Amino acid sequence: MSKDVLSLLTGEVLEDSVELTLADLCRACRVPADRVIEIVEEGIVEPLGGDPAHWRFHGVSLRRVGCVLRLERDLGVNTAGAALALQLLDEIETLRTRLQRFND
Fold this sequence. Notes:
- The chain is mostly helical.
- Helix 4 crosses helix 5 (79-103).
- The chain has five helices and two strands, in the order αβααβαα.
- It has a single domain, classed as Orthogonal Bundle (Multidrug-efflux Transporter Regulator, Chain: A, Domain 2).
- The longest helix has 25 residues, at 79-103.
């Protein structure tokens, strides 16, 4: 991982143009690869590439994996529950965006 990418990982906002390898994502989230693979299998993040050795993740994946880990740690939900919570949060954001457009 380049130094520029590492500096982006410590910030609040990650651009979609940032690509992380599985190792980068694991290092940034401080989790083993099998944990990220489980999160991928649950459909929470979708890597580009055919197999874990070639996976690339967008910067938003870091936020989503971190959210899953916090939900599990703080609320005791399992991975499937965290996936559902993120899906609902995404839907709320979509509805808010539509409502904002309607009100403008």
